[in-house]
Amino acid sequence: MASAPHVPLEPPERLVRVLTAWEGEAGRAWLAELPARLQEYLERWELTPERVQQPGGNISMVVLVRQADGTPAALKLGLITAETAQEHAALAHWDGRGAVRLLRADAEQGALLLERLHTDISLRSLPDAKAMLEAAGVLRRLWVPPAADHSFTSVADYTAHLADQLRERREQPWAAEVRPLVDEALELRDRLLADPPQPVLLHGDFHHGNVLAADRLPWLAIDPKPLVGDPGYDLARLVRDRLETLVAAPAAQSAARRRLGRLADALDVDRDRLRDWSFFRAVEAGMWSLSVGDREDGELLLEFASWL
């Protein structure tokens, strides 16, 4: 169904800004093709647009739509990257268990039709303790064995690439003071991968902002960057959620360690493994931030790692 002319369908400002900055010419080319691609899927899948989700994602545009029978849904058009290429496969495997349900997909074009969630209400709307409790419940549903013939990237392979980048950034002049943290992160990764637990399907980017209110279940995850491997790797991103608030709290270092312990206990994840993955992921994220000139976030992430 063709789009109604009165519905604005311009890509969100954040999407334009991020894709232009992160992806350069490839991002600009994708943005130039986006209006025609959007119209194509509105017509092909017989969708009537209601509004563009704002502020939207960093590399995807989400349009709230109605299907031909009037059922609400969300059309997601995203730039395909190594991290997002298997999003459709993960959603299909979960089939609505803990995650948004996939209704239709054209994976080669990065087009997904998803069940409609309450897109403006995430776990960030809850107090921290309640949000962590709900997040743990969602993860329990997501951590299932992958299919025997799955094509998901392993945590070992994915973090090998991150480790190579860490080694390169370690040698930059701006990294001189934090090299001991980088060395420890790399050593911990090697140790973690030497004795991995039973692998499960992971979300890959699990935090409060990626869990939305729903009708089928109270909360459902969105935007997976799926991997297969150690549950502690997935949980490590949640450990540092709302970091700015955590840092501002009294006795922040102790609060961070208590949070780590509570999450490990709630999800039956080994505390030491969770601590080590949390350290690695915080150092990796901090070094990335420093490498792109975001000194404030970079220093905050590295300070958090040092607390662990």
Brief digest:
It holds the Pfam family APH_6_hur. Helix content is 49%, strand content 15%. With 308 residues, the chain is an alpha+beta fold.
Q: Would you mind describing this structure in some detail?
A:
The chain is an alpha+beta fold. It folds into two domains: 13-116, Phosphorylase Kinase, domain 1; 121-307, Aminoglycoside phosphotransferase (APH), C-terminal lobe (Aminoglycoside 3'-phosphotransferase, Chain: A, domain 2). It has ten helices and ten strands. It has a five-stranded antiparallel sheet with strand order 1-2-3-5-4. It has a three-stranded antiparallel sheet with strand order 6-8-9, with helices on one face. A two-stranded antiparallel sheet has the order 7-10. It is globular and about 55 Å long. The relative contact order is 0.11. The mean pLDDT is 95.
Helix content: 40-55%
Alpha carbon gyration radius:
20 Å
CATH class of the largest domain: Alpha Beta
Strand percentage = 5-15%
The total count of strands amounts to 10
